Amino acid sequence: MRTAVATALIGVALLASGCAGDSQAQVDDSASPSLGVADALVLRTKTTGGFGGLGGPGTMPEFSLYGDGRAITGGAHPAEYHLSPQALRRLVSDASKAGLATPRTVDDPRFADATYKVITFVTGGRPRTTKIINEGGRAGDPATAFLPRLVPANWPRGDQTTDPRPYRAARVAVLAGPSPDTGDTASTAPKWPFKPLATGSRVGALSCTVLTGRDVAKVQRLAVRPDWRDRGQTFRVTVRPLLPDERDCAALNR
Prior knowledge:
The protein has helices at 2-28, 85-97, 142-146, 184-188, 214-222; strands at residues 41-49, 63-66, 70-73, 79-82, 104-106, 115-123, 126-133, 165-166, 171-178, 201-203, 206-212, 227-230, 233-241. It is of the alpha+beta class. It starts with a helix and ends in a 13-residue tail after the last strand. It folds into two domains: 41-165, no CATH class; 168-253, no CATH class. A hairpin with a 2-residue loop joins strand 10 and strand 11. The strands form two sheets. The protein has an eight-stranded mixed beta sheet. Strands 10-11-9-13-12 form a five-stranded antiparallel beta sheet. The protein contains five helices and 13 strands.
């Protein structure tokens, strides 16, 4: 009887030890399974909140890092950077050391209706989210101190395998809503030459369609003009480059 009980206790101990090991590997594994996978997201930052409602559906993140070392910045002129494998592993390891593998909010009670920086860190196969209120939070917090590391302009040239270059998306999302202009705009707006604007998927309050191939370059040239006429309606159109991990319009609602 004692032998059977001892055997059972050993089995329970081994099982608990194995579970703890798995959990630790998921949280602290700096060699993420995503590393080396071209379109696998590793780190992302996005600013949301505030009175202006920043970061709503369809907004392009400020920074996205992928498993092959590519980093893409948002803004009016998205750019692409390439980290060396060694620099990529170091950055991912430091993200874990900064506590980004544990979802949390770094708050600052002095601010109401503040903006906050959202950092997504994919480790152990799951995205973990850290929110830093007002892009500052508590002084000395490791996550706050880590934020400048996610600005490619701060990266040493020796950590990059190529010079930065404009980001060329293979797919773009066309986001369309009713034009706020009336009168002459409605009568002079050119006819939309691609997929119907009103029948796409919903991204927030907007209709979304995806263009690929030769249509990508063509629509980006035309998009300097925001107002277009399609099937008797006038739309305000925005072209949003899709990132490597964004396959369709549904990704823009996340």
